[in-house]
From TrEMBL:
Family statement: Belongs to the sulfatase family.
Name of this protein: Sulfatase-like hydrolase/transferase
Pfam families assigned: Sulfatase (PF00884)
Residue ranges occupied by any Sulfatase N-terminal domain in the UniProt entry: 10-348
Superkingdom assignment: Bacteria
Keyword Metal-binding attached: yes
PROSITE patterns: SULFATASE_2
CDD domains: sulfatase_like
GO MF annotation terms: metal ion binding; sulfuric ester hydrolase activity
PANTHER family linked: IDURONATE 2-SULFATASE
Keyword line: Hydrolase, Metal-binding
Amino acid sequence: MNKKHSPQRPNVVFLIADDHRDEAIRAFGNETVHTPILDSLAASGTACRNTHIFGGLTGALCAPSRACVHTGISLFRAMIGKEVMNREHSSVIRPDVRLMPQTMREAGYHTHAVGKWHNDKASFSRSFEGGDKLLFHGMSDHTKVPVHDYDPTGAYPKEKEYIERTFSTELFSDAAVNFIEDYLEDRPFFLYVAYTAPHDPRTAPEPYASLYDKADIPLPPNFVSEHPFDTGDMTVRDEKLALLPRDEDEIRQHIADYYAMISHLDAQIGRVIEALKAKGIYDDTLIVYTADHGLALGQHGLMGKQNLYEHSVRIPLIFRGPGVPEGQQELALASNIDIFPTVAGLCNVDLPKETEGVSLCPIFAGETEGVRSIVCSVYKDIQRMATDGRWKLIRYYCSPKTNTGTERIQLFDLLNDPWETQDLSADPANAGEIERLASELASWMQACSDILQDMPVIPGTS
């Protein structure tokens, strides 16, 4: 295993995208999308290809997913009480929970933020000692971005917000490059760069907008015109972005626009990397690339991320830099709450005692092939998921609050059916797999204080 020299405390550039699913990177087997920069990061680092989001209790998955990344703990414990079920855009991280940038700051890092912070301002303020072009919203038009300058008081009043017209991805990359070029301190830095791409509106600038012709876009193998049953959230905003039943030509255009946003994002990340190289600190910097969640875009007849299929719960996770093996694609199971412990391990920083995530560093060091035997995800009070990497169980509930949803399960063999096209739950031969995963899911729900922990995992059971 080829490892690079690892200084005791590397700089960190933490890049997080919005809506970028794991599959939409060329290095990961997608032959349509162009991502040369991300491909090069994967080739010179390690890609954790089986990383899942913990999930969320609202349709706005950005905020809870980012809270899990920031804190390394269950969203049920990271966010303020069960109140999150009643707020569509719940974002508040508990004041007694320490975040990744806060922990890095306390360990001596200069912490600096750029771009989207979809959680509360108090958690931001205790985490960062600097920042630029700060977006305290879930989304915006990419050429009308409401931002704040860094406010040392932590107030960020509405009257100090102003509109930037530079395309969001370029705006945030400009700010990141400026920070790198101007940084003169001896202590290492933790630079957090949170993009709003490739989230809609998918309006990439030229020449990227014309890079993909919808006629050349293949439909995914799991494309269907309509989802076969009520998932419990069929009328959420994202599902209204395309006509029903889904039209093949319209879906191809959506995918073309999505890829255009990703390719533009990829090029702008390249500018950040070039700034590190020009500064002479590229090889002394840990680069992390990930996303808050994935997206359907026509898969399973869905458009959004408000589901627990692989296209929505699997995210890219790439590490490149000191202590990271080169050219590895790891299939070990991971959760997004494992990102913080892994960054801390690579930076020789002690974790807060409440951290629940597991460091992936033992995998990088060749000490083990995996750190988890199962990962699970949640969505609202209507869906739960458990997978061991091959078999995957999705449990659907009827919501007593909205009277939507379906009492049923699905079982997929991801080894032989990675696109989740064949539900095998009705086959008696698979009863053992269902029972095993259901037991694992029930144990996980109890351990993480899931609000549904007392509900039966399999319909008809008590």
